[in-house]
Write a structure and sequence with these properties.
Helix content is about 35%, strand content about 25%. It has about 290 residues and is α+β, with helices and mostly antiparallel strands. The chain has a domain of about 170 residues: Glucose Permease (Domain IIA) (Distorted Sandwich).
């Protein structure tokens, strides 16, 4: 009887019973899910997602890459250091030497051409002396200096140009100048004035002829005392109709221009004009007016 009642109860109320059981089940599932979510949230601070990059690790990687780049640069610099005996070592040494030369050393043109000046000058001097020994003596009859008024050189008034022409080689005792005929560099104690053969040569100042001689370099040469310790030398002359002791006034004709000696063939015909103060040569350009 009792069994029949339960059967009828479930038969009539079974729908409600199942609905109640379903609600209970849903509530239980929801409660369990809520607890699990809270638990995971509390543990989130300690959870590390391996798939997401860590900022500290990224910074460390950047530092490592920078270190690696620096190492590569150091390696390249080390590779650029030339070992002794290599071709690049010689190049670097040459560059260093060139820098040294540019900064400290000044080479004259004759040194750049590799000319041994001492040897060339010695050989030239020997050749000149040998030629001088072969020159004939100049007739100097009546060589006694006449007793005339004493000479006085007016430095302020200066010197008359002995010939008109261009100076083709300047006076130079401090620096070497190139002698085209000799193909060498030498000092030049005179000025070389361009002049045609046959041009009259005038006395640059009043003076007395003290010497007339033939020199292998300057040819027929006349030396004159002009007073106060000064003297003038005229070279490459011809047709000198004077003798030692003759007194010439400024502008008087000494002679004419001759063919150049073999020491001036390239320069051409010229007047060799030298000025001395005592035994020392001076630059005639300082006095020519």
């Amino acid at each position: 009887m009792k069994k029949n009642r339960l059967t009828e109860f479930f038969k009539d109320k079974g729908y409600y019973v199942l609905l109640f059981v379903g609600i209970i089940a849903i509530a239980a599932v929801a409660l369990i899910g809520s607890n699990l979510s809270s638990s995971q949230k509390d543990k989130g601070e300690d959870f590390v997602d391996l798939n997401e990059p860590d900022d500290n690790m990224a910074a460390e990687n950047d530092n490592n890459e920078l270190q690696a780049d620096n190492n590569d640069t150091s390696d390249q610099q080390a590779d650029n250091v030339i070992s002794p005996g290599s071709d690049n070592t010689t190049q670097n040494q040459d560059i260093a030497q060139n820098d040294h030369l540019l900064e400290f050393d000044v080479f004259t043109e004759e040194e750049e051409k590799g000319i041994d000046l001492a040897e060339v000058d010695e050989n030239t001097t020997a050749a000149i002396e040998e030629d001088r020994d072969k020159q004939p003596a100049v007739e100097t009859a009546g060589a006694a200096v006449k007793n005339t008024a004493p000479l006085k050189f007016d430095a302020d008034a200066g010197l008359l140009w002995p010939v008109e022409g261009n100076v083709i080689m300047n006076y130079s005792m401090d620096h070497l100048v190139y002698h085209s005929t000799l193909l060498q560099f030498k000092v030049n104690p005179a000025i070389i004035i361009d002049a045609e053969v046959g041009t009259e040569v005038k006395a640059a100042a009043t003076g007395v002829i003290t010497d007339i001689y033939v020199d292998p370099v300057t040819g027929l040469t006349v030396a004159m005392d002009i007073g106060d310790g000064y003297s003038l030398v005229y070279g490459q002359l011809a047709n000198v109709n004077h003798k030692i002791g003759d007194r010439l006034s400024e502008g008087d004709i000494i002679g004419t221009i001759n063919e150049p000696t073999k020491y001036y063939t390239v320069e051409g015909s010229n007047l060799y004009f030298m000025m001395l103060d005592g035994e020392e040569t001076v630059n005639p350009m300082l006095y020519l007016r």
